[in-house]
Design goal:
Distance between the termini: 58 Å
Oligomer: single chain
Largest sheet: none
Strand content: under 5%
Shape: flat
Number of helices: 6
Order of helices and strands: HHHHHH
């Protein structure tokens, strides 16, 4: 009986130490990658070698784009919340469901269009010698946007 109690005590102490170690690791660990827009900005700036004037104009464009995307995200969240609330009813109202689905699809379409226009505005800021590098950068943009700045998963490429 005494051996079981000692073993149990030892296991409890071991679990407390492991949990404390995990918590310490989480607090010491850096807070993850930068937001994807910052990651994308760094990639664009490094690859295109924007001069001060271009950088200033691009920063203005980024702020406007970020504001537009945040606004669209808020509309999407509102519709999504209402969409999920449809589950409270015994039967889902099909007309409301279709309306929310249509609204959310439209918001995603507007976000895609806004992003395309944003990069078109960037393109117009570039000098002819920067355009070649811009075109080389294009295939990378969707991956950076979708992964949120995390390193790519080699299994997906």
């Amino acid at each position: 009986m005494m051996k079981k109690e000692k073993l149990l005590l030892l296991l409890v102490i071991l679990l407390v130490v492991l949990n404390a170690g995990a918590l310490i690791f989480l607090f010491i660990q850096k807070q993850g990658p930068p937001p994807r827009q910052q990651e994308m900005f760094q990639i664009i700036n490094e690859r295109l070698h924007l001069d001060k004037q271009q950088l200033s104009k691009f920063e203005e464009l980024r702020k406007l784009h970020r504001h537009e995307m945040d606004e669209l995200d808020n509309y999407f969240k509102q519709d999504l919340n209402e969409y999920i609330k449809l589950l409270k009813a015994h039967r889902i109202n099909i007309a409301l469901r279709n309306s929310y689905e249509s609204n959310m699809a439209d918001i995603e379409k507007r976000k895609a269009r806004a992003t395309l226009e944003h990069f078109q505005q960037l393109k117009f800021l570039l000098k002819p010698d920067q355009l070649e590098e811009f075109y080389k950068l294009l295939p990378e943009l969707p991956r950076v946007m979708l992964r949120g700045g995390n390193p790519p998963d080699p299994r997906r490429d």
